[in-house]
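It would be a great kindness if you could assist me with a short task in structural biology. The matter concerns a single protein, recorded as an amino acid sequence and a row of backbone structure tokens. The record follows directly beneath this note:
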Amino acid sequence: MLSVGVLSAVLLSLAGMNLSLMRQSATLAIPMQLDIARRNFVAVALDPRSWQATLDYNGAAMECLNLSQPCVVGGVPMNAQTFALVDAKGTVLFDSRNSANGLSEKGEACGSYPSAACPFRFNLTWSTVCSSATNCTDPIVKISAPLDIATGAATPSRPINKANYSLPDTYRTAK
């Protein structure tokens, strides 16, 4: 009878440890997925074939970059324009033009941001870096993607520092 009691106590203890490890694993997986997404965005944005696919996919919205035309609106260099980031194969990695697009806790694309099923979003934008509005043809392009987190997605038991996972400003040539 004593051995059954000891065995039961050991099994309960192991079950508790297993549950704790599963929670910790899930907590660590989210930051890892966000970091992978951020790193992929940088790599794709800097890859010449992917950037050309991005320019082609976004069409008129990025035409000034694709056709070496002045990138100004109303005499002001273009700033914080949302766009879809596309890899060299033509796969859309993230389309920031739709404000409902985001990422799940598994790092998968979702279309219901902000929600429990879709708690993360990168606000992917491009801006021109020009010496003046009259000299804004083939500018340097600044790509930014600050991370937004839906209310309730980051908790004291699962803190997420947005600054750690936001895309650092990334600069590249227009073409």
About this structure: Residues 2-173 form one domain. Helices lie at 2-46, 48-58, 63-66, 162-165. Residues 2-46 form the longest helix (45 residues).
